[in-house]
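Lecture 7 notes: from sequence to structure.

We start with a single chain of 407 residues. Read the sequence below before looking at the structure.
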Amino acid sequence: MAVPSFKTGAPFPVIARMTFGVYGAIIPALIRGIIAVGWYGIQTWLASNALVILVLKIWPVLEPWANATQHGLLGLSYVGWLAFLTIWGLQTLVFWNGMDAIRHFIDWAGPVIYGLMALLDIWLLSKTGWHLSFQIFTPHQPVSLIAHAFGIINAMALILAFFAPIILNFGDFSRYGTSMQSINRGNFWGLPFNFLAFSCLTLVTIALTLPVFGHMIFDPVETAVRTTSLGTAIIGVITIVTATIGINISANFVSAAFDFSNMAPHLLSWRKGGLIAAIGAILFTPWNLYARPELIHLTLDVLGTFITPLIGIILSDYYLIKKQTIITDDLYSSDQRNIYWYRSGFNPVALLSLFISTGCGALFIFLPALASMRNFSCLFGFAIGILAHTLLSSFLPHQYKLRQPTA
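Now the structure, written as tokens:
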């Protein structure tokens, strides 16, 4: 997803015009925007919970005001609203200062998170007498080779599902790259290396919670607030909030801003699009959605079935159908003679491919017989998106007007 945006300097909603048409691209942009707003609201609220817990640890007298049934509005307590709007405001402030501010924030947030996590682990180690054991992760019963392999594949599928929105959004950032070599180098250090290093640090933290607190704690918020040291609790909460803001802005806020501004570029600037996304996150009231876990899983699973098919369709269109040829000028033109006009501005082949691939992915969500394979729906959606778009484009070829590519 990085290459077409890097070559043209265009964000995802504009690149999508290459595949879906100059007007049809509104559909994938709207899908991505809705998903981004949903996740943006959820992650903002989850980060605000850490702030609420810290506030109550410092000022226990505010406990009644943290109870939504006694003092609340729209299902959220007054303390919860204060924490939510604080995190919401911090993210909006970083976003409003532009892409340079976002890049600088992410640049320093990463090392800060590592440093704070290391301090938390040092405190936990001091409480264990500087002893660390990973025996707690050893299974109590022997695991067969097949079950072990299935577990690894399942974990890989979950990791792909986690990174799928970031992969889809990556063109919004690669367009600012200086070279593909620097982008690839940044991807290596920022994704596999960083992911592995932080996962190891997280495992150390989890392993240390057992001897310190008597049971394993997987929630970093709980780990932070369970510490007897107020300073350690503050460090833990700052780590969580900083990590959430960095991920939330890059994975959700920026993409939603581009998507909504693309709906009416003559009326909505990038900042206005971001403001719409931020307000939408409040109207989403994620705390009410979280009150019914089955509803939030269903909503996000259904929306998530659109992500990997979109990646598959756009990649197959760029690499297999158009052979890495893209006419930059036509991406910004609604002239009926332009190559991306297709039929009235819509590419029926891409839209049909999206319908087929998302429909197949939805089967894993709604069919009980396929429930055990739900985690693999993203892989199937990606593969079917590529297959459907490639085959349909071969059977229903579009007669492109031969022109010299500009990118």
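The first strand starts at residue 72 and ends at 73. Keep this in mind for problem set 3.
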